[in-house]
Specification:
This protein has 264 residues and is of the alpha+beta class. It has a domain at 6-73 and 89-187. The protein contains nine helices and four strands; from the N terminus they run H-H-H-E-E-H-H-H-H-H-E-E-H. Strand 3 (216-217) and strand 4 (220-221) form a beta hairpin. Helix 1 runs antiparallel to helix 6 (130-153), helix 4 runs antiparallel to helix 8 (190-212) and helix 8 (190-212) runs antiparallel to helix 9.
């Protein structure tokens, strides 16, 4: 097989882009979670968490490809006519559970951001051991990776191409982790943007899993979200957030100017 063929190179480009998009929330989580470790260990926690997770992602990729046929074998069916109908295999169950987990995580973290008033003080009081934080980063990375690997396998099943895309995304995470963490620390409002992107990713996974399972809820078929719709929604979220931030800065300047004492 010619690994340098146009098809493989094109698939590699698509996969790197896909890994980058789906890895954004992963990188965001790494940046946030690492801040729960002692300040002196945070950079080391990010590096080791990403490196360990990267190695396990390659192992996970190899295992999924070896057991791919078992993922498509029927597990069970539900036929509650008019309520819930569908035929499920291991892959669709993982997609549905993964999507539900991502949505639950996003909603939980958004609620957490709204409920805590003094983040710096809370983080100082609840600092976790570095090893525990690394374990959480690795675990969450694998959860994100499982869904992204299944999505990537729909594009190609050439192991070197898939592995190269995973390694590339891991290297990008290593390069960007400290910068993203610093940026998030200085601009906490962008956490909400990342969590809403995570919420949309969960919806996409639920749609794909439901479609593959021919799932019907209350007589309506579950349809997958088109990739163009997904990218458009992400672009709209980013644009709205940037515009809103600019508008808030403008309002802050206007208020500051209005509060200045008038000169005689």
């Amino acid at each position: 097989m010619d690994l340098a063929s146009f098809e493989n190179l094109a698939n590699l480009g698509v996969l790197i882009f896909l890994q980058a998009v789906l890895g954004f929330d992963n990188l965001l989580y790494i940046s946030i979670e690492s801040q729960r470790a002692p300040a002196a260990s945070q950079a080391r926690v990010r590096r080791w968490g990403i490196l360990i997770a990267l190695a396990l992602r390659i192992v996970l990729l190899f295992g999924i490809m070896r057991l791919l046929t078992s993922f498509t074998e029927p597990l069970f069916s539900i036929h509650w006519t008019g309520w819930v109908e569908g035929s499920f295999n291991l892959a669709t169950v993982i997609f549905l559970l993964g999507g539900a987990f991502l949505m639950w995580t996003a909603v939980k973290e958004i609620s957490h951001l709204l409920s805590i008033e003094h983040l710096d003080e809370g983080r100082e009081r609840t600092a976790k051991p570095a090893v525990r934080v690394i374990a959480m980063i690795v675990l969450m990375n694998l959860i994100f990776s499982f869904d992204s690997i299944l999505s990537a396998l729909a594009i190609t099943q050439v192991f070197p191409v898939l592995a190269t895309a995973i390694v590339t995304s891991g290297v990008l995470m290593l390069v960007l982790a400290d910068r993203v963490s610093t940026f998030i620390e200085r601009n906490r409002k962008y956490e909400v943007l990342g969590l809403f992107i995570l919420l949309i990713v969960g919806v996409v996974l639920l749609g794909e899993g439901g479609h593959e399972a021919h799932l019907e809820l209350l007589g309506y078929e579950v349809e997958p979200m088109a990739k163009t719709t997904f990218y458009f929604a992400i672009a709209v979220l980013v644009i709205v957030d940037v515009i809103q931030s600019g508008y808030q800065n403008k309002l802050a300047l206007e208020r500051a100017h209005a509060q200045r004492p008038a000169h005689a």
